[in-house]
Amino acid sequence: MLPRSDRLRELLRLKRPFSHPDRLILRDHLALERTRLANERTFMAYIRSALYLVIGGLALIQLEGHGDLAWVGATALALSAIFTAIGIVRFFTLRKQLDSYYLPLEDHTGDEAG
Question: Could you tell me if residue 26 is inside a domain?
Fold first, then answer.
């Protein structure tokens, strides 16, 4: 059985080998750009979800006359912090992996034979 920290890393998918020894072609370069944009969209979705939880949590904490819903609001605030942390970790992990893989396309206008 894996230790708890390794299980958490495996759950968050932080330990994935990511390397490619070959030179990038245009198709690979465009795929990396799509992946980079998808990573940003996913990060923004995490942030959006966390903000909705903050708004809902604060509303539930301030709500009166409908029983004791403050604990639900506090739970929503805690979940928003967890969502934000997971989103930040996943964003920067994939960004680091992409940056280590990404090499700009070289300009091949010059003569390579001579």
Answer: no
